Amino acid sequence: ETGVTQSPTHLIKTRGQQVTLRCSSQSGHNTVSWYQQALGQGPQFIFQYYREEENGRGNFPPRFSGLQFPNYSSELNVNALELDDSALYLCASQKSSYNEQFFGPGTRLTVL
Amino acid sequence: GENVEQHPSTLSVQEGDSAVIKCTYSDSASNYFPWYKQELGKRPQLIIDIRSNVGEKKDQRIAVTLNKTAKHFSLHITETQPEDSAVYFCAASRGSGTYKYIFGTGTRLKVLA
Predict the structure, then answer these.
(1) Which residues, other chains included, contact A31 with Cβ-Cβ below 8 Å and sequence gap of 6+?
(2) Partner residue opposite B100 with nearest CB, options A45, A96, A102
(3) In this complex, do B43 and A31 lie within 8 Å of one another by their Cβ atoms?
């Protein structure tokens, strides 16, 4: 198992609500990426944070936002939830100069 | 745009046989190619990776080959076992700047005992 943890494990929300997902990176890792994995699909890159700054963003609308804290943990916030936001949300941490990303167990979000 | 195609989407093999999964990437600046195994309800686990300065890498029963000219890389699993059954994802990354991974759509491998 990696040292990356995520909370909560599962979450059920209704359309229009807002949600915050949390990720603790592995010790020594200063870069966190967030991915959305819909059922039966590969993970899709949402954005990445390096030393508390956004360091690249995928094709997701602005209602997907994030933060990284001084201890390199991170949050993913999604506003105005839509049914299609139902997915497994994965975070992955890495050392900035190394390629390998280590994934957390994910948060399964269901939007009703 | 950046894209990784992965084939086949499902693969069934008899225990002991070999399995091959193929990926093609579009971004010629990609230089790092990891493979992940994801069991049902679990996180993706890195099983092997290859960098663009290497054509082949092997780790016990698992090997990966890379053809940069064709922008093509493959995962080879030999002597398959039932515990190899899972979904396998390939990914491509530039390895600098934004270290984002572009994932393939996955291959569901079933090893039949």
Answers:
(1) A25, A48, A49, A50, A55, A72, A93, A94, A95, A96, B99
(2) A45
(3) no
Tens digits of pLDDT across chain A (112 residues): 668 999 999 999 999 999 999 999 988 888 999 999 999 899 999 999 998 999 889 999 999 999 999 999 999 999 999 999 999 999 999 887 667 899 999 999 999 9
Outline where A1-112 has alpha helix (H).
none
DSSP class of residue A97? T
Interface check B106 vs A, CB under 8 A: yes
> Could you say which residues from 47 to 76 on chain A have a Cβ atom under 8 Å away from some Cβ of chain B?
48, 55-56, 58
If DSSP codes are grouped into helix, strand and coil, which group holds residue A58? coil
User: Which residues on neighbouring strands pair with residue B93, listed in sequence order?
Assistant: B32
